[in-house]
Amino acid sequence: GDWIVVIDAFIQDDGNDENDDPMQEFRGHILIDAAQSGIVWQTVETAQFNLTLIEEGSNETLNGFSVIATSDTLGEITLGPSDENGVISEGLMEGTWTLSLNRTDNNLRWVLENYTLTVGAGSANPDTNLTLSKWVEIAGNLFWDLNDDDAWNIGEGIADANVTVNGTQYG
User: Fold this and answer.
1) What is the gyration radius of the CA atoms in the chain, in angstroms?
2) Structure confidence at residue 19 as a pLDDT band (50, 70, 90)
3) What is the spatial order of strands in the sheet that 23-31 belongs to?
């Protein structure tokens, strides 16, 4: 069969208290068949990084959001959620990953489409700001409130009406 093997990140204690012990992990693709033998896996130093999630337009940070990281050969990993400052501090196997997010809450939608992130082993990766597009759903009934009760009633509908929303303001 075709498998992805994962050894979760752990601290490799080198016995020297004078330095930081590196995070190690393994994630790899393996094909198992009758001829397969002598499998050897070796962990590598984790690529550590920080992502800050920012809402387009308002420039506010977003907390409680998770991002999906996808690799063509290493599969899919969920990163996060972001903390109260919008930061996700995570680690991945070094390489190139595609980041995405698609979240909907109460008629609001945030989207990050196919952001490419390349990370190297260790903690020297730069902090990355990710700007999420924000979409809103406008829904409801368009009516002429003939009886001033602030509610739609039979006979108050407006036939063939078009609603146009335009502007560049966020809020």
Assistant:
1) 24
2) low
3) 2-11, 23-31, 44-45
First and final C-alpha spacing in the chain: 51
Residues 64-123: tens digit of each pLDDT: 999 999 999 888 999 999 999 999 999 999 999 999 999 999 889 999 999 999 999 998
How many other C-beta atoms lie within 10 A of the C-beta of residue 103?
Answer: 15
Angstrom distance (rounded) from CA 168 to CA 162: 20
For the CA atoms of 98, 4, 121, 66, what is the dihedral angle to 10 degrees?
A: 40
> Which has the closest alpha carbon to 13: 24, 28, 5, 4?
24
Contacts of 35 (CB under 8 A, 6+ apart): none
Predicted model pTM: 0.75
